[in-house]
Amino acid sequence: HGKENVDSRHSRGRGGETTRFHTVNVAQPVRFSRKCPTGWHHYEGTASCYKVYLNGENYWDAVQTCQRVNGSLATFTADQELRFILAQEWDLEEKTFVRKDQRRFWVGYQYVITNRNHSLEGHWEVAYKGSSEVFLPPDPIFGTAMSENENVLCAQLQCFHFPTLRHHGLHSWYAENCYEKSSFLCKRSQTCVDIKDNIVDEGYYFTPKGNDPCLSCTCHNGEPEMCVAALCERPQGCQQYRKDPKECCKFTCLDP
């Protein structure tokens, strides 16, 4: 993680003068474990970040909340991704809109009703067209708050709070009135997070989380690349000092 290694040596030049030079380790490409902002869960399989919001919004408001954090309501590309979501222990508060052992979240699918005979018939669609690899849920359980006038219902994924149920991947899909209030699950691309926990946009320079505040990298697809390390002179006239862990070349003198 960009350790500072300086080996100061002396050699005798012509005429007896002393030449001082530094041997510096070249910064190597490194991978940092933190790829999502605080509060988000990272899944390597899709290079994505996920977060549950508990503030109880209808489907359309949830869509806008996810968009404001550069994401969307979650859709899933494979069973492995869904199993990752179901296995997470989300930071859930007591405030919830369903039973404590069952959690329902808005996700990025809608059920389009095509027939209202004895049983509702229709099909799932992705609410906002994205990857063609997104899989569609199985037949849903229909919610209780349906209106005769609604032709579109919105998807809720139900997962379970108890660890034994959670790790077995038990879940259900609901087609619910889109104006009901519910918690919701946002998904966004993994991102670069700097040493001060700020989000860094693609292509910009930043200092990654780690042990070296003097490391400067370029953000590329959520990874730090083309890293360059700076070196600092020790503070002059100070015997004991402390380096600031988050500011390059900033020292605090500890001398009396």
Automatic annotation (TrEMBL):
InterPro entries recorded: C-type_lectin-like (IPR001304), C-type_lectin-like/link_sf (IPR016186), CTDL_fold (IPR016187), DGCR2-like_CTLD (IPR034010), IDD (IPR042378), VWF_dom (IPR001007)
Residue ranges of every copy of the C-type lectin domain listed in the record: 45-187
GO cellular component: membrane
Protein name, UniProt field: IDD protein
Organism in which the protein naturally occurs: Glareola pratincola
